[in-house]
Design brief:
five-stranded mixed β-sheet, binds FE2/S2 (inorganic) cluster, Ubiquitin-like (UB roll), Uridine Diphospho-n-acetylenolpyruvylglucosamine Reductase, domain 3, alpha+beta, binds flavin-adenine dinucleotide, 20 helices
């Protein structure tokens, strides 16, 4: 059983939404389902925030969202095209106009110095992303600073000059000595003085009362809902499923409990999870982009029930349990693998919310891996993805959990293949035999992500990749190729 994690429901529907846009306090009764980018551009006249795709892909609409938590404002990037206006309530939203001063700030100057802009359409998004990264205070690492613009696409300049600009910003900020990021950025001309007043002003904004009888649209980060149903929900009541528990990720004894409202970024930054999953950064950096990871929640990924949902595949291999609760406080738990019933069909009753997931932490003999193959390495959904957790003792597999996406109508727990491995020694021949079981268990279809045959081949290769990654001494890739060639001749 997952212990009680209280979930609060904030209701929005034709009620006053209050937030700070750059320096200005906004009080609006515009529909809560309106995309934030439309409010910024068409209601507030701030046209520096651009619209490229309205699907979270291009980063032209990136803004910074500040949340007031325990006396401090925590800043991160979000895409404003996928953010309903209602979710801005109580936040500090910063657009490029809020980052402009009397002269260019050092981030803007770096882009000018390295000719990092041509038509300029993408440039506000790049500047906003880099400024948000500076606001995070985590500027010591160049790779991380480069990754902060992984959600921004430029169609004309070419990325080399932008990379040089990022490097210049890194050189300016890397030796900041842990000063408060806002104070330091004000002192160095990145931000204007009014930034200092934001915490106290945000603290003064109260939660919205529930005054609407309308049945709500439940939203996590909006990164699926706003892509699929943005037009349908503009005038609906938006209800954010959010945890009142301060703990998004909790370890109790040998068990990890993750709140449904935990974002991918929160997991990626969790020291607890990084200790348990040393390759976590590699795995999660394959999921979408920085602003999408800042918004996307665990519950949203699972309830969306996409057959290629990365988090669903990740947690299936951990043999996780999902916890659900209805509005009356009745809870139930079930294995995640039983939650997916058919294509986009779930064991989720009307009114039930996903409260969280729980799984046993990997022990000394446990080995976990996640693999994803997509058309582009970054900012792309999978053609096929898969995860594995193997408990190995004295060279023998005690038990194993294998999951795969893109090869069935649901994110698939491969029960037969997992069972096949029990008691087996790891070697190339066993993998070949396991692949035969696996191929019987999957039913991929041909679609835009690849033909059915291609997906079968991909999953075989990714199964081998799990073993060459986890047990290189027992499954040499060259040896595997030789075994495969011999098998094909046979
Ligand atoms: C540009 C882009 C790239 C992406 N890349 C990837 C990727 O690489 N890998 C990947 O797996 N996905 C990807 N996605 C899809 C998406 O980001 C993820 O599925 C994300 O985890 C969805 O979470 P969310 O909180 O934004 O969901 P939302 O859009 O808020 O919600 C999705 C569904 O879940 C329901 N819901 C939300 N919270 C709850 C709850 N607590 N209880 C019950 N129901 C709930 C909502 O009502 C809705 O039906 C991408 C999306 C975009 C736009
Ligand atoms: S408009 Fe492209 S990410 Fe929002
Ligand atoms: S400068 Fe034109 S799209 Fe980037």
């Amino acid at each position: 059983m997952i212990p009680s994690i209280k979930i609060g429901l904030i209701y929005y529907f034709y009620i006053v939404i209050e937030f700070i846009l750059n320096e200005k306090l906004i009080r609006t009764d515009k529909p809560g389902g309106m995309p934030l980018v439309d409010f910024i551009r068409y209601e507030s006249g701030l046209t520096g925030t651009k619209i490229g795709c309205r699907e979270g892909d291009c980063g032209a609409c990136t803004v910074i969202e500040g949340s007031y938590i325990a006396g401090k404002v925590h800043y991160k990037t979000i895409v404003s095209c996928l953010t309903p206006l209602a979710l801005a309530h109580g936040k500090h939203i910063v657009t490029i106009e809020g980052l402009n001063g009397a002269t260019l700030n050092p981030v803007q100057q770096a882009i000018v110095d390295h000719s990092g802009t041509q038509c300029g359409f993408c440039t506000p998004g790049f500047v906003v992303s880099l400024m948000a990264h500076c606001l995070s205070g985590d500027t010591a690492n160049l790779e991380k600073m480069l990754a902060s613009v992984d959600g921004n696409i430029c169609r004309c300049t070419g990325y080399k000059s932008i990379e040089k600009a990022v490097k210049q910003v890194w050189e300016l900020t890397r030796s900041r000595n842990g000063d408060d990021p806002v104070e330091w950025m004000i002192s160095q001309g990145y931000l204007q003085e009014w930034f200092r007043t934001i915490p106290i002003r945000l603290a003064g904004i109260s939660n919205q009362p529930d005054i609407s009888p309308a049945s709500p649209v439940i939203i996590g980060g909006g990164t699926d809902l706003m892509v699929q149903k943005a037009d349908d929900i503009v005038f609906k009541k938006i209800e954010k499923a959010h945890s009142l528990s301060s703990k998004r990720i909790e370890i109790q004894d040998n068990t990890c409990i993750i709140s449904g409202s935990c974002t991918v970024s929160e997991m990626l930054e969790s020291e607890l999870l990084k200790q348990c999953f040393p390759r976590l950064e590699k795995h999660f950096s394959l999921i979408s982009s920085t602003p999408i990871r800042n918004m996307a929640t665990v519950a949203g990924n699972i309830v969306n029930a996409s057959p290629i949902a990365d988090l669903a595949i990740f947690f299936l291999a951990l043999d996780a349990e999902i916890s659900l609760e209805n509005g009356e406080g009745t809870k139930r738990c079930l294995p995640l693998k039983d939650f997916f019933k058919g294509y986009k069909q779930l064991d989720l009753q009307p009114g039930e919310l996903v409260y969280g997931l729980r799984f046993n932490l990997p022990g000394n003999h446990d080995h976990f891996n996640f693999e994803k193959m997509s058309k582009r390495e970054h900012l792309d959904i999978a053609s096929v993805n898969t995860a594995i957790m193997a408990r190995v003792n004295d060279g023998k597999i005690e038990h194993l959990h294998l999951s795969a996406g893109g090869v069935a109508p649901i994110p698939l727990y491969l029960a037969e293949t997992s069972r096949f491995f029990t008691g087996k020694e790891i070697n190339g021949d066993i993998l070949l035999k396991a692949n035969e079981v696996l191929q019987e268990e999957i039913s991929p279809i041909s679609d835009i992500r690849g033909s059915a045959e291609y997906k079968r081949l991909l999953l075989r290769q990714l199964l081998f990749a799990h073993f060459t990654e986890l047990f290189p001494e027992k499954t040499d890739p060259i040896q595997l190729i030789q075994i495969l060639q011999a098998d094909e001749k046979h």
